[in-house]
Specification:
Blueprint: H1 9-21, E1 33-36, E2 43-45, E3 50-53, H2 59-73, E4 78-80, E5 89-93, E6 103-108, E7 111-116, H3 119-132, E8 141-143, E9 146-150, E10 156-162, H4 170-182, E11 187-191, E12 193-194, E13 197-198, H5 207-210, E14 214-215, E15 219-220, E16 227-228, E17 233-234, H6 239-250, E18 255-262, H7 267-272, H8 292-296, H9 318-331, E19 339-343, H10 350-354, H11 356-364, H12 370-387, E20 391-395, E21 408-411, H13 416-423, E22 428-430, H14 433-436, E23 440-441, E24 453-455, H15 458-462, H16 473-476, E25 479-486, H17 494-501, H18 504-513, H19 521-537, E26 550-556, E27 561-567, E28 574-578, E29 589-590, E30 595-597, E31 601-609, E32 612-622
Parallel strand pairs: 3-4, 3-5, 5-7, 10-11, 10-25, 11-18, 18-19, 19-20, 20-21, 21-22, 22-25, 23-24
Antiparallel strand pairs: 1-9, 2-8, 6-7, 6-9, 12-13, 14-17, 15-16, 26-27, 27-30, 28-29, 28-31, 31-32
Helix pairs in contact: 2-3, 4-6, 9-12
Bound molecules: acetamide (ACM) and zinc ion.
Length: 625
């Protein structure tokens, strides 16, 4: 792993080469080293080109390649386990390629060679190969001559999918996994339980899904909502479906980390089993807009609104621990992942403060406040998780009241939790809202579909460096990686999930994979132009927000003028604008540098490529005397 405080001059030199010389080649995430080897090394993949595997272990990589080329280019390749007479794509393992996940890729006139340090490395080599192919549908599969040596920066490169707020069908979860795979992401954190739905079958307790997987309605619009839609909503994954998804991910070298949330965000489990609450007889507070069905049936209900809710698991009731252990008994065997996520965030202490059982538990264990009670809860679960050979990971609130001895911390409320955990010698995944929350807006909220709030454009994600200055080099070794989170309160469909995910996924992937040295926003945007085409090729509903023109206007009242500057997150954009409020066309005024206006105007600006408007038109009104 390379670190920012030890600049590697060689890598910086290589990075300069890559940004200056290789306009035809656009790999995202940026590889460690890349050399273009010229027109004498072009190779064309044809239907007769064999994909040669030197080991059965490489079958998932070969199959991915064959399937992709078939699906998106209509060319059917064949795999072969023997060296062939015809030039082909040769997949092999070579420890000389580097450490875990490293690979070397070479395209010459006589074929393609992908040598992985391990199976995973071969898979990543294949992903890079797919990015060398034309990004449009064609059967002329010319590859440029190139030599690549590559390896990941972090061992944990994650994306979280929340299926609690909205449920996503198995087929989409697989598609989501494919999106992660083409970006060399290696972890999907699967947020499986929430206030608004319990999404995984537990055979011993079928009520968890029979009742907990369905809500009687959902608020409409942004919290607190305008009304309740009064539609029963839900779904869950059977254990067979979970196994199928985990196996699908494994073939793409993606580990699925399950999350069973506790002690907060537990309304769905409590709806199934009211005695898990401190106050089983108190009806669920569904906010101002409960559904008609819930109004007619006061009692414990699956949540219908968003936010943080007081009704959490009772920490003084042993049947809570028993149920959660039963759940672990069934969930742990489904997931090969060493990490097991227990949530741990946003657990209000109001109920625990007034709950006799919680208060007795605190006295028995000499706990001075409810934070220590939460720590008791998490530590108790950690013992159980550790006894099953797994490591507990939780959001940074698990630091409060004392961190469980072996826990990893996922830092989301900024980096402070991650810094504190690393100082305590605990491993950390950085996932601060400021850079990693893909439920935030990625363009102006006026022109974007409804999101939770915030503002996280592509350039902000890309700017993230997860090594805080507050840590020594030794402490920083505890930062094992980063993760983007797709919370889904306002992500109600697969196409919206794709929209929120891409292209920001590419930026987080590059931060997670590529070294800090040689990082270049301009070069990233250049390479993204090809990736956008690949998104189009594979039918991904990616956001065009990076093409939105951000307008900065500085009014100089004394001179009765306004200075206007445009910015986008696109490469070398052809920005066209009007001053009279009309929609710009490819022939409108071309923006070259900031300019002054001397009378009131309605500026409309957009980015054009090949005569076509990309993204939305932005608007700014200027009022001058
Ligand atoms: C979180 O966003 N509540 C982890
Ligand atoms: Zn209690």
């Amino acid at each position: 792993m390379t670190r920012i405080w030890k600049p590697n001059i060689w890598l910086m030199f290589m990075a300069m080469l890559t940004t200056q010389g290789f306009s035809q080649i656009s790999l995202v995430p940026r590889p460690l080293e890349l050399k273009e080897t010229g027109s004498g090394n072009i190779f064309t993949i044809k239907a007769e080109t064999p994909v040669i595997l030197t080991s059965d272990k490489l079958l998932p990589s070969a199959e991915f390649l064959v399937q992709y080329v078939q699906q998106y280019y209509g060319v059917q390749l064949k795999t072969s386990k023997k060296p062939a007479k015809v030039n082909g794509v040769v997949l092999s393992i070579d420890p000389a390629a580097g450490g875990q996940g490293a690979y070397m890729l070479e395209v010459t006139a006589s074929g393609v060679s992908i040598k992985g340090a391990d199976e995973t490395g071969v898979f990543y080599g294949v992903q890079s190969l797919l990015q060398l192919l034309p990004a449009n549908k064609t059967t002329a599969l010319d590859l440029p001559g190139v030599w690549v040596k590559d390896a990941p920066r972090f061992g944990y490169r994650g994306v979280m999918l929340d299926v609690g707020r909205h449920f996503f069908p198995v087929e989409f979860v697989k598609k989501f996994i494919d999106y992660l795979a083409i970006h060399k992401i290696n972890t999907m954190h699967w947020h499986l339980t929430e206030d608004q739905g319990w999404r995984i079958e537990i055979k011993k307790h079928p009520q968890l899904t029979a009742k907990g997987a369905y809500r009687n309605g959902t608020i409409v619009g942004h919290y607190p909502g305008s009304e309740n839609d009064n539609e029963r909503y839900g779904g869950f994954y059977t254990q067979d479906q979970v196994k199928d998804i985990v196996a699908y991910a494994a073939k793409r070298y993606i580990t699925v980390v399950p999350e069973i949330e506790m002690p907060g965000h537990a309304s769905a489990a409590i709806a199934a089993f009211p005695n898990l609450s401190c106050f089983p007889n108190e009806p669920t507070n569904l906010g101002k807009l409960p559904s008609e069905v819930s109004k007619a049936n006061p009692g414990k209900q699956v949540q219908e609104t968003w936010g943080v809710h007081d009704d959490v698991f009772c920490a003084g009731n042993d049947s809570v621990y028993q149920l959660l252990e039963d759940v672990m008994d069934e969930v742990v065997p489904l997931f090969p992942s060493t990490l097991f996520h227990i949530g741990g965030d946003e657990c209000p202490k109001a109920n625990w403060k007034r709950c006799p059982r919680c208060q007795v538990r605190m006295k028995e264990h000499n706990l001075k406040d409810e934070h220590e009670l939460q720590s008791y809860f998490v530590q108790r679960m950690e013992k159980y998780i550790n006894s099953k050979g797994k490591i507990l990971i939780g959001w940074d609130e698990i630091l409060e009241g004392g961190l469980a001895p072996n826990a990893w911390v996922m830092s989301w409320r900024g980096e402070a939790g991650g810094i504190e955990a690393a100082k305590q010698n605990h491993d950390v995944i950085m996932s601060p809202t400021t850079y990693c929350y893909f439920d935030y807006y990625q363009g102006k909220s006026k022109t974007e579909p409804l999101a939770i709030g915030g503002y996280l454009p592509l350039n902000k994600v890309y700017s993230y460096n997860p090594f805080p200055d507050a840590l020594t080099a030794e402490q920083a070794k505890h930062i094992k990686g980063i993760q983007a989170n797709l919370w889904t309160e306002y992500v109600e469909s697969p196409s919206k999930a794709e929209y929120m995910l891409m292209p920001r996924l590419a930026a987080i992937a590059e931060v997670a994979w590529s070294p800090q040295e040689g990082k270049s926003w301009e070069d990233f945007t250049r390479r993204m132009e090809r990736l956008y085409d690949q998104y189009k090729l594979i039918g991904a509903n990616y956001a065009k927000s990076a093409y939105e023109v951000r307008q900065t206007v500085i009014i100089e009242s004394v001179n009765n003028k306004a200075n206007v500057t445009f910015k986008t997150d696109a490469y070398n954009p052809d920005i066209r604008y009007t001053l009279d409020g009309s929609i710009p066309s490819a022939n409108s005024l071309k923006y070259t540098k900031s300019f002054d206006v001397y009378r009131s105007a309605i500026i409309k600006a957009g980015v054009f490529k090949n005569g076509e408007l990309k993204g939305n038109v932005s608007e700014q009104r200027i009022v001058l005397d």
